[in-house]
Every structure is written in C-alpha cells, then in structure tokens.
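User: Can you fold this complex?
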Amino acid sequence: MQAATNHAGGSGWNDERVDRVVGLLLRIGVLISAGVVLAGGILYLIQHGSDPRGYRVFRPGGVAVRGLPAIVRGAWHLDYRSLIQFGLLLLIATPVARVAFCVAAFALERDRTYVVITLIVLAVLLASLIGSQTGV
Amino acid sequence: MWAASALAGFLGALTGLGGGVVVTPVLTIMLGVDLRYAIGATLVSVIATSSGAAAAYVREGYSNIRIGLFLEIATTIGAVLGAFLATRTPSSALAIIFGVILLYSAYLSSRPRSSKERQVQPDPLATRLQLNGSFPEGGKLRQYNVTGVRKGFALMFGAGTLSGLLGIGSGAVKVIAMDQAMKIPFKVSTATSNFMIGVTAAASAGVYLSRGYIDPGLAMPVMLGVLVGSLLGARKLMGAETRLLRHVFAIVVGALALEMIWHGISGKI
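Assistant: Here's the predicted assembly.
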C-alpha cells in the first residue's frame, strides 16, 4: 500500500495511514511476543540451566505445548514451556492480525475488490489454524 | 544456535527468503537435530523474519500489501494442492528439477536491470487492481508499474504447490516471480515476499504446533535470534545498493538450489 495508490474514500483513511497503523501494530505484536518468549527463556534457564535436553530423537511434548487452551493455562501458571509457546502463538497471530486489519482498512477505503481478496486470504488462514487444533 | 539464528534473520530479511535457508541445514546437519524439530524451528524463524522485518519495511513503504494479498490467494490455493499431491509424487526427482530451475533463476536475478527495462508499461489488470506503486529511493519516491500479472499469479500458484510438496523454497520463487515476471523493483519484491511468507507460514503453524514439531526449548533461541537479525537485515536493505542485494540473493538461492539437488540425489526429501 503506497502513497501512489492512494484512494481515500472520504473517511480520512488512505493507504499511507493504514501503513503507519499496520507498522505500529506489527511492532507492538513483535515486542510483546518477544518479551513473553524471553521471560519463558529466563525461567527455563533458572529452572533447567544445567539440564540440556537433546533434540536428536523426536519426542513430541505433552498437550501443554501443543493445545491452545492448555498453553494458555500453563502460561498463566508460569510454566516456562507453555509461556514460550504462548509467546510463539502471539508471534503467529501477528500476520493474522495484520491481514484482519487490512480487511477493515480496505472497507474504510471503500475498496470492495480488496475487501474480498483479503477476506479470502483471511478465511484460508483461519480455517487452517482452527482446523489443525481440533484433534488436540 | 543464537548466532546462526541471527544470521538467518539477517539474510532472510535482506533477501525475502525467510530464515529457513540457514536454520534448517544448521540444525539438521551441524547439530544433528531431528528433522521434525528442525521443520518447526524453521517455521518459527520464517514468521519471526517476516514480522520483524515487516515492522521496519511497511512503515518505510517498501512492501506492497495489495500485491502481497492478491498473490497470496494463488500461493495458498497452490499450497493446499501441493499438500494434497505430496503423498503421490516422487519428491526426489521433483527436488532435483526444482533445484536446477532455481540455479538458473539465481543466475537471471543476479543481473541488474537496464534503465530501458525499468520503463515498464503497466498491465491493464495491474492498473485495475491498483498494484502500481512507489517506494523511497535516494530520499525521493520512485514510481513503478507492474506488468505480467497473469504470469506472476500462475508462477505464485506453482510456488505454492511446490512449497506444499517439498516444504521449502517458496520464498525464492516468490521473489523471482515478482522480479522477473512482473518487473517489480527488487527491493519491493523482497519486502513484499517477506510479508507473504509470514502469512503462508502462519497458515501451517497450527498443524506443526499440534503435532509437537515446535519445541519451546529449541524455538526460543531461534525466535529471539532471528528477530534481532531480521531487524538489522531490514535496516540494511533500505540503504543497500540493489546491485549488491541481487548478488546476495543469487548466492543464497544458489546455495539453496544445490542443497535441494543434493537432498534429491541422496533421497533425503
């Protein structure tokens, strides 16, 4: 979205302003997720600093690192593994939030074509994210 | 691992390829990590590169979100098809063919564009979809037109299918399609690719998370290292000479291509 493709729909919203808001949104999302992962990492070092775990053999962790509700519960109780996963989930959510915000922004710009295009992308994203969590 | 992750983020942000090019071989070959953990960590590194770099790019006006979203449709549909075909395709042969194509594309994209080639007549479809834009260069805004929309869309569909089949290399095809087929300025191509790979990766993140591929102990250093690297890489891109960026891109894609051919020959894919 550039200044040259500027199509303000009378609502004061244009591509440049959307750019600024999206940039800010991303920066906040990235900072918060990095902070949460870092906090989890520090807890990990305090609790398991001398216990290096190998990754040569694949041993999938329990539901605390795989299922969404369990991750949120674990993070609340400051379980370091869940806390890191929660931070990663926030990171995964940033591109999703970005696409969702674009839907709103294009709607405000009254750009129907792009509302539809962006909704298709968002639908595929959400379907894939939600669909994958049903079996956990 | 911290250093490798930071390097991955730096190169990933600079070239629009994501961090997988560095993270996957370092984890699997150098550290002997199980491939499934490596896939999970790579996915995390791709999203971290994308979001970290995007926070810098979008505000500076490099990435073109309209182009990104429009092409994302082709990529996601292709990825679904690729995942569907994955169980019934000889992926070793495919990896070798794809590797050879990438090698040739790396050579093509290493050559700078002449000033005559820069004067692009806009595709009527590009105008209708408002894909033409501008980006900051030397303190001014440089306008650019987009051509070959259908060809680019078809290539993106192919890129999505291949990435669904092989699990790698979609970032490279994205940049090459935007650069070679649609004649989009190189910096805009890499920055837009960076936006797109994050969206694509987020779509498959749920599957990997629920299968336990994303391990917190491994993902933590990868994510933090890549974030720092990608922020630096994005900063570097803004001031860098396009000619230099093309060379870096060609070298990284060339390495990726050789890695893929090797995997294909050794039957590891």
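Chain A touches chain B through 66 residues (CB under 8 Å). Chain A has a mean pLDDT of 78.
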